[in-house]
Structure to design on (944 residues):
């Protein structure tokens, strides 16, 4: 193997070689110096990794024993100059297998020891600082607080450990799209166990979370719009300290991204009520995994009425809810009417872009209004509606003017056409008269 | 009222000898026969041209020929200027109607063999007018600087660029550079409002002069026909046709105002199904369906050369049609003309009915 | 002849009517409209003197709302006022010197970047040019 030959020569100190070059009689000192410089500059780049008998042997094997060697090519540890021996111990310079597996050799750790195996480096602040000062080193501690960690401590090796989520050889940085822990791969990674009904049965856990999530608006943002800021499993459950948020804290989790809805909710009577009853705030109406795009139908009296889950239809709170929905619906209808007015005018050929611009403000009002429903306050909703109604009134006035313009055009057309036709008729009469008067010699 | 008009009449007569003009009009005879309906189309072209000049001059008041503002100025004309929508829509609709009328006029002259001696130059000047008005259409289309026009111009100049030897030079001259840009807009504006109007006036002057000199051509074989004086009879009938066409244009403009389109973005990808204006589509589709290579020569180049040759021969028709110059019927050319019309119509229809055909 | 007179009258008045119905639009067309000129990629946003430090003005850029901001340090900046979350119109909040979207409290810094809340992308930035006390905003090519 050529590798071995190169490595043999690299074992010879550079200085001696340079010295030998300088002492040759053929070739000038300048040429030798230049050659020396050239060698020195290219050597570090071309210097192959330290001899690695682990890789050399394992590449010759098959299947399961070959796989780690192949996978290490793209591994992030490899990119930092770490290799087999840095985790598994042993002597990679030693070609003989028995002598290579010396006293430092750790081999394959049992599943219940994997966290400590990885944590030997990843929980060591001083060590990690050499490679990436910004990388966290609390993963191991967090892991022990998680459900996975707690069960592992008790000896259950079916739960997830480091390698189940990150892979083992061929690990990529989490920011690399092929990584198992890259945003859009995470549901699949968690789902490997959590969507397996048989696997989850002994724990009494459902296996539909990933499926539910995939139907959600968060998954749509992630997979279809490629919006990497959309939440995945770890954003709500945590990475290493993964545990389902407690009922009282689901809302805090949602508030990370949806603070305004959370603030509005906190101003409403629901806050005290939910907390008192121990109901999880956002989840009660919006769900946890299958969070769908909210619609006006979720309000009281709508087809997806969520209020009825707790309130009886004839109670005062429910009536307040219905009033709010009525106000919102009325405004939406008013907006749609204004929009229809503008498109009718546009279809008739009248330019309405200034009015359309104004309509955008009304659109802002609707979106803001829908968020305001969290306050359950008729007065707040009405206050916002007042501004919105003013805008719509302006737009409708523009639309009416545009329709009038369209009518004016048609009227003008009729007038002009009538004159034209009259003129054509007048010409005919004049022609007939001219012919009659000029006599038979002038032909028609 | 009549006295007032009489006074004006005698004033003008003293200064401008109007009576001379009217006498000429009375002497000029227009034959009436089963094909005299086609005589209207020449005057209609002139009338539509005047409409274009008038609306064009009005549009110049508010249009700005710079890529930053051209599109916005059109939107401004359509939405803010009183009756801007009307002036602009008339201009756009009439442009298309005018080109259609030119084709009808040309083909009617062809089939009626109106190009027979001594009217050969009338035909040739008419041919140049066809080219001038096609250039009007091509240059005017880009001025609103919208997406369709931008890409249609690119496609059109690309086709011009394929002409061997001179193609690239022509293309660069037209574009004012290697590609469609602000320089192109300036050049097209220059052509559209200065160069082409001047040329059009010159050639129309020549064409109309020749028609007055030689009088109206009669179909072959027709010796004695009824005739009416141009003034006042034919002129009044002409005016009736013009009124009807005007009413038609009005209806089109009110019910189908011309689109503004989306502003051109040179960095956007070419929209699917881009094509030039309808009067160029028969060339466009032919180039699309021509095979890539014919006997080692590029198909497109061959097709373009064929069109150029065809156009050249078309211009020379009066000199090629021996039989007609002897006042004999020449059915061969008539059939050829018919085939050409069928071909043009078919290719045009194909563009719209089967847009995916060809590359 | 009476008849001739009537015919001429008819002809004359229909000519007059037709010409007037064409002349009227042309004359109206020639009268300058209120908004003197077409809006362009380059838009006049405000008088430079009308904006005090730590304030902003909402103006129309093309067909969309935009904000011209004078920072507390006196610098002029312009951004699209369309929130990248759900297209509500963003406003300038003086107390914090940031841009706030009222719909879901999305917040942007004065570089247009998202500080907090649901917006997924920063606001589109425009170029500002001041000429003789007039502030022009335009999109960079």
């Amino acid at each position: 193997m050529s590798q071995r030959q190169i490595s043999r020569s690299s074992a010879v100190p550079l200085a001696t070689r340079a010295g030998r070059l300088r002492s040759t009689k053929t070739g000038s000192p300048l040429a030798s110096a230049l050659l020396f410089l050239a060698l020195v500059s290219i050597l570090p780049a071309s210097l192959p990794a330290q001899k690695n008998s682990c890789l050399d042997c394992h590449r010759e094997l098959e299947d399961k024993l070959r796989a780690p060697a192949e996978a290490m090519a793209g591994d992030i540890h490899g990119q930092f100059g770490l290799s087999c021996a840095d985790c598994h111990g042993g002597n990679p310079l030693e070609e003989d297998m028995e002598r290579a597996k010396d006293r430092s050799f750790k081999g394959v750790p049992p599943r219940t020891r994997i966290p400590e195996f990885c944590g030997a480096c990843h929980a060591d602040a001083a060590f990690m600082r050499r490679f990436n000062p910004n990388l966290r080193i609390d993963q191991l501690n967090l892991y022990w607080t998680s459900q996975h960690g707690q069960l592992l401590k008790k000896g259950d090796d079916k739960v997830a450990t480091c390698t189940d989520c990150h892979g083992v050889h061929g690990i990529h940085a989490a920011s690399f799209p092929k990584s198992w822990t890259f945003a859009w791969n995470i549901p699949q990674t968690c789902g490997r166990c959590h969507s397996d009904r048989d696997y989850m049965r002994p724990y009494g856990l459902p296996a539909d979370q990933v499926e539910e999530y995939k139907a959600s608006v968060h998954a749509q943002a992630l997979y279809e719009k490629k919006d990497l800021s959309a939440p995945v499993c770890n954003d709500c459950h945590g990475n290493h300290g993964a545990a389902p948020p407690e009922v009282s804290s689901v809302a805090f989790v949602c508030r990370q991204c949806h603070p305004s809805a959370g603030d509005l909710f906190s101003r409403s009577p629901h806050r005290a009520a939910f907390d008192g009853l121990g109901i999880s705030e956002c989840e009660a109406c919006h769900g946890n995994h299958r969070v769908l795009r909210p619609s006006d139908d979720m309000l009281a009296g709508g087809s997806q009425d969520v209020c009825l889950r707790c309130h009886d239809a004839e109670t005062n709170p429910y009536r307040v809810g219905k009033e709010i929905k009525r106000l919102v619906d009325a405004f939406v209808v008013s907006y749609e009417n204004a929009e229809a007015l503008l498109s009718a005018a546009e279809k008739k050929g009248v330019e309405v872009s200034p009015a359309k611009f104004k309509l955008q403000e009304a659109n802002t009002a609707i979106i803001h209004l829908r968020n305001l429903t969290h306050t359950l306050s008729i007065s707040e909703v009405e206050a916002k509606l007042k501004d919105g109604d003013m805008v719509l009134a302006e737009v409708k006035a523009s639309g009416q003017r545009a329709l009038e313009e369209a009518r004016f055009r048609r009227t003008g057309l009729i007038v002009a056409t009538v004159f034209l036709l009259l003129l054509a008729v007048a010409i005919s009469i004049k022609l007939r008269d001219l012919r009659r008067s000029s006599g038979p010699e002038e032909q028609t | 009222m009549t006295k007032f008009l009489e006074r004006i009449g005698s004033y003008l007569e003293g200064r401008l000898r109007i009576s001379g003009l009217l006498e000429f009009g009375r002497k000029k005879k227009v034959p009436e026969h089963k094909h005299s309906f086609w005589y209207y189309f020449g005057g209609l072209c002139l009338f539509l041209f005047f409409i274009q000049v008038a609306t064009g001059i009005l549009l110049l008041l508010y249009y700005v020929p710079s890529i930053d503002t051209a599109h916005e100025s059109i939107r401004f004309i359509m939405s803010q200027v009183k009756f801007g929508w009307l002036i602009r829509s008339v201009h756009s609709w009439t442009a298309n109607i005018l080109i259609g009328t030119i084709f009808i006029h040309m083909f009617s002259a062809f089939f009626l063999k109106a190009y027979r001696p001594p009217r050969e130059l009338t035909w040739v000047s008419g041919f140049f007018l066809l080219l001038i008005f096609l250039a009007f259409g091509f240059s005017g289309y880009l001025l609103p600087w919208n997406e369709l026009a931008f890409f249609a111009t690119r496609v059109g100049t690309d086709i011009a660029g394929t002409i061997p030897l001179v193609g690239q030079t022509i293309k660069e001259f037209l574009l004012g550079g290697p590609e469609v840009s602000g320089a192109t807009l300036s050049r097209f504006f220059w052509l559209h409002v200065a160069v082409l109007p001047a040329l059009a006036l010159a050639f129309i002057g020549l064409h109309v002069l020749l028609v007055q000199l030689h009088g109206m051509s009669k179909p072959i074989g027709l010796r004695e026909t009824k005739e009416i004086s141009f003034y006042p009879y034919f002129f009044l009938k002409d005016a009736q046709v013009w009124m009807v066409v005007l009413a038609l244009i009005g209806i089109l403009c009110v019910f189908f105002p011309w689109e503004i389109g989306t502003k051109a973005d040179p960095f956007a990808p070419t929209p699917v199904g881009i094509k030039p204006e309808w009067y160029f589509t028969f060339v466009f589709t032919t180039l699309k369906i021509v095979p890539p290579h014919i006997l080692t020569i590029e198909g497109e180049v061959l097709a373009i050369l064929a069109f150029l040759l065809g156009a050249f021969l078309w211009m020379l028709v009066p000199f090629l049609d021996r039989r007609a110059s002897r006042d004999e019927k020449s059915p061969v050319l008539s059939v050829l003309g018919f085939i050409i019309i069928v071909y043009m119509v078919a290719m045009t229809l194909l563009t719209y009915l089967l847009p995916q055909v060809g590359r | 002849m009476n008849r001739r007179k009537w015919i001429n009258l008819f002809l004359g008045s229909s000519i007059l009517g037709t010409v007037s119905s064409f002349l009227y639009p042309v004359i109206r067309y020639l009268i300058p409209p209120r908004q003197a000129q077409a809006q362009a990629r380059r838009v006049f946003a405000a008088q430079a003197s009308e904006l005090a430090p730590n304030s902003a003005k909402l103006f129309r850029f093309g067909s969309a709302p935009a904000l011209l901001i004078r920072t507390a340090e006196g610098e002029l900046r312009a951004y699209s006022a369309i929130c990248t979350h759900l297209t509500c119109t963003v406003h300038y909040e003086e107390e914090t010197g940031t841009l706030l979207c009222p719909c879901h409290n999305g917040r942007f810094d004065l570089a247009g970047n998202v500080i907090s809340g649901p917006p997924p992308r920063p606001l589109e930035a425009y170029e500002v040019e001041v000429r003789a006390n007039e502030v022009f905003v335009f999109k960079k090519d």
Observations:
- Chain B touches chain A at residues 32, 75, 78-79, 85-86, 226-229, 232-233, 236-237, 239-240, 243-244, 246-247, 250-251, 254-257, 260 (CB under 8 Å).
- Residues 136 and 192 of chain B are 6 Å apart (CA to CA).
- The longest helix of chain B spans residues 182-214.
- The beta strands of chain B are 29-32, 226-229, 293-294, 297-298.
